[in-house]
Amino acid sequence: MKEHLQGMSLPELEQIISAKGGKSYRAGQLLQALVLDKAVADITTLPQSLKQALAEEYSFNAAEIIKALSSKDNSVKYLYKLNDSNIIEGVFICQSYGNTLCISTQVGCKMHCAFCASGLDGFVRNLTAGELAAQVYSANVHKGGDRQKRAVSNVVLMGAGEPLDNYDNVIKFLRLISDKNGLNISLRNITLSTCGLVPQIKRLAGEGLPITLAISLHHAKDDRRAALMPINNKYSIGEIMAAAEYYYKKSGRRVSLEYALIEGKNTDIADAKALAELVKGKDYHINLIALNEFKEGKMQAPSAANIKRFMAELAKSGANYTLRHSAGGDIDAACGQLRRSYLEGESH
Ligand code: SAH
């Protein structure tokens, strides 16, 4: 696979261009074209000879939108084709405070959480920084945005894959996407969600990137969490919470806890009490979401009454929580489902 220009910073582009005999100011023009996801033929600002020399060695478009499915609630599900023909997915979600794009960080996933569709076909590979950025660039253009008027204002690393298992590319992406010379998305508008890779959480705390960290918790007791998330056998809840605390202290950013409500697995009063106990006296925000059911999954979302009961128990303890509504249910928006149905050759 050719290297992705969309993953390069301005200084890197300057070097590449000078190696091809171009003037350094061309790097800025190239970066602007890359951010707008221009095909090489459509770039009018660069000389033909330079474009040709670059195209021989590098790829300009790292993630091509091959399908965009709009749902009733105005969210859009994207299927992207990578240069090596792997398929990944993302979701664009309209919100009152802006528009969020949920991106994938790996093709497949190694983590094998029992309730998630992303890892069902196993792990294929990490996404490059260019492929991470290209998901945002191409969706922004697809929704009519440019560099000044962005259609994508927020990014969440909550699609398929474990971002902290692709650490270096994700860090490079975060710096690129927030670069003033690039799309300039505020780091404060970016959320990274992790299943709880403790050493990487601590490392992330030292990067000086003011993003929001979200931890996929899903249970407050180790044995029950391990039954849902095998990674808990490696890093316990205690270790994860200590890392989250460290992240909070270092970054000043409040950490979110993700909790998908799964009938019979984590929705009893005792489960709510354990969760409330875990966050007692601490500044966490709990994001509840009803499980997104999928075809191959054996687990179910709880009834509305059970969700209410769970929330009432949390409220009693003064815990800080919100129930998130899952966007795009009619377009298989959740977690690896669209890619799977595409790979199975279903039509939508
Ligand atoms: N690997 C990262 C990010 C990807 S998953 C992580 O684990 O956080 C993004 C979020 O979706 C996580 O909180 C994950 O637990 C949740 N999720 C996965 N499958 C789900 C499903 N079927 N219903 C609801 N949430 C789900």
Please provide a written account of the structure.
The chain has 348 residues and is α/β, with parallel strands linked by helices. The chain is 34% helix and 20% strand. It contains eleven helices and 14 strands. The chain has helices at residues 10-19, 26-35, 48-57, 129-142, 167-177, 198-205, 222-228, 237-251, 269-279, 304-317, 337-343; strands at residues 3-4, 58-59, 63-70, 76-82, 87-95, 98-102, 106-108, 123-126, 154-157, 190-194, 212-216, 256-261, 285-290, 321-324. The strands form three sheets. It has a ten-stranded mixed beta sheet with strand order 3-4-5-6-9-10-11-12-13-14, sandwiched between helices. Strand 13 (285-290), helix 10 and strand 14 (321-324) form a beta-alpha-beta unit. Helix 4 crosses helix 5. The longest helix has 15 residues, at 237-251. The relative contact order is 0.12. The mean pLDDT is 93. S-adenosyl-L-homocysteine (SAH) binds next to strand 10 and strand 12.
Features:
alpha/beta, elongated, 20% strand, binds S-adenosyl-L-homocysteine, 11 helices, two-stranded parallel sheet
Kindly, what is the distance between the CA atoms of the first and last residues, rounded to a whole number of angstroms? Answer: 30 Å
Radius of gyration: 21 Å
Largest sheet: 10 strands, mixed
Structural class: alpha/beta
- Poorly predicted regions are none
Apparent shape: elongated
The percentage helix is 25-40%
Ligand names: S-adenosyl-L-homocysteine
* Secondary-structure element string: EHHHEEEEEEEHEHEHEHHEHEHEH
E-strand count: 14
Oligomeric state of the chains present here:
single chain
**How would you write the strand order of the largest sheet?**
3-4-5-6-9-10-11-12-13-14
